[in-house]
Write a structure and sequence with these properties.
Blueprint: E1 24-26, E2 31-33, E3 37-39, E4 45-49, H1 58-66, H2 78-96, H3 102-114, H4 127-130, H5 133-141, E5 144-148, E6 158-163, H6 170-176, H7 183-186, E7 192-196, H8 206-212, E8 215-217, H9 220-227, E9 234-239, H10 242-246, E10 255-256, H11 263-271, E11 275-281, E12 288-289, H12 297-309, E13 316-317, E14 335-339, H13 353-374, E15 387-388
Parallel strand pairs: 4-7, 4-9, 5-14, 6-9, 6-11, 7-8, 10-15
Antiparallel strand pairs: 1-5, 2-3, 11-14, 12-13
Helix pairs in contact: 2-3
Length: 389
């Protein structure tokens, strides 16, 4: 299937203006920033698959409340924060064996073995964690708004494509891994899950934190298990660009890694699940990124590390705690995650490549339409369009 590099369908920074309301939504605010001013089952299961994404991006924000940071250099990539957190959990698990608390690790290891299959069987959420006040602070920091443009029938299963990935997938995390933006109020009967790299579910202690937020491994068997659940209302959403797309995430950019990403389309066809495009305006505006043009030594190194580790390492920076020109914290810029209309998909056990290509093209067209219809409401210039690679 031929697909042009540029389809009419990135933008300067999403500026300070307060955009009008779109459809049904939950708006939170007002929240002030010195730089941008005032901005104002059997029920179902929503599954969010974010390859290369993390659920601990919020740890960045905790530093604002619990630490005094001295901004001096670009921040560590968020995937690195997850990697470091996982290492700490492993060190804790092993270290306890050499202390008088060794029994804790023994008991946990026993529990771990008994609970081994839970992540691939839909996970285990803890509602008090999903409803934690921490996520409401994180929501208000930007702020983040979930915008609903249509109803999603909880008797059906859906596959959702989330765009763009951004540096930290803040929109996907806050909207679908917490109740901070009122997801359950907007989409009653749907229970959100978020899928991330299977690797992290093999880390002691850390896996339990992930499960508490409703996360599950990002493998095909887990996705199929959730989509086959009886009663409908199961939605599998994918940040299609994944870790590689994060390397192009910077203010004013709307470059999506989608042209050859068709696995999620085939999955939808195999289960007869409608496809739902979702675009998160402002996702790329949160961080500046060290210049890494294609062909540069930095970009080559980042790609190489991604191939080895499975995570991307964008070198980003934004603002500090007590000043707004440089530091580790993201900019306080609003994020509007717009949920589009579902695309009807005919169930086929073994779809041909031509059928997958045709549906993939239809999905791109609907995503472009969603972007074009809403971009001016969120301060994206009229002459800016989505770009596909």
């Amino acid at each position: 299937m031929h697909l042009s590099e540029h389809l009419p369908c990135s933008s300067q920074s999403l500026g300070p203006a307060q955009p009008p309301m779109v459809g049904s939504h939950v708006a939170w605010g007002p929240e002030k920033d010195p730089k941008i001013g005032t901005v104002p089952i059997k029920s179902g299961h929503l599954v969010i698959l974010v390859r290369g994404a993390t659920a601990l991006e919020a740890m960045i924000f905790l530093s604002k409340f619990f630490h005094l940071l001295t901004p001096a250099k670009p921040g560590l990539p968020t995937d690195c924060l997850v990697f470091i957190s996982a290492q700490c959990c492993i060190a804790l698990f092993i270290g306890l064996f050499f202390t008088r608390f060794w029994l804790v690790s023994v008991l946990y290891a026993t529990w771990w073995l008994l609970d081994w299959d839970t992540p691939s069987k839909g996970g285990r959420r803890i509602h008090c964690i999903r409803n934690s006040v921490i996520w409401r602070h994180m929501r208000n920091y930007f702020p983040v708004t979930l915008v609903k443009t249509t109803e999603l029938d909880p008797s059906k299963n859906y596959v959702v494509g989330f765009h763009p990935h951004g540096v930290m997938v803040a929109g996907a995390f806050l909207n679908f891994c917490t109740e901070a933006t009122g997801f359950s109020q907007l989409f009653p009967g749907l229970t959100p899950h978020m899928m991330m790299l299977t690797l992290w579910f093999r880390v002691p202690f850390f896996r339990d934190y992930l499960l508490s937020g409703g996360l599950v491994p990002s493998d095909k068997d887990t996705a199929a298990y959730v989509l086959r659940r009886w009663g409908g209302g199961n939605v599998l959403a994918i940040a299609v660009g994944g870790a590689q797309e994060a390397l192009d995430a910077r203010p004013g950019a709307f470059t999506l890694l989608l042209k050859n990403r068709k696995g999620f389309v085939r999955l939808a066809m195999e289960h007869g699940a409608p496809l739902v495009p979702v675009f998160s305006f402002g996702e790329n505006e949160l961080f500046d990124q060290v210049d890494n043009p294609k062909g540069s030594w930095l970009r080559r190194m980042q790609h190489r590390l991604q191939q080895i580790m499975g995570i991307s390492l964008p070198l980003f920076h934004a603002r500090g705690v007590f000043q707004y020109s440089f530091g580790l914290l993201p900019y306080r810029r609003p994020i509007f995650t717009v949920v589009g209309k579902p695309i009807k998909v005919e169930k086929k056990h073994n779809p041909s490549q031509e059928e997958v290509d045709r549906l993939h093209q239809m999905y791109i067209e609907e995503l472009c339409k969603l972007f074009e219809e809403h971009k001016t409401k969120y301060n994206v210039p009229e002459d800016r369009h989505l770009e596909f690679i």
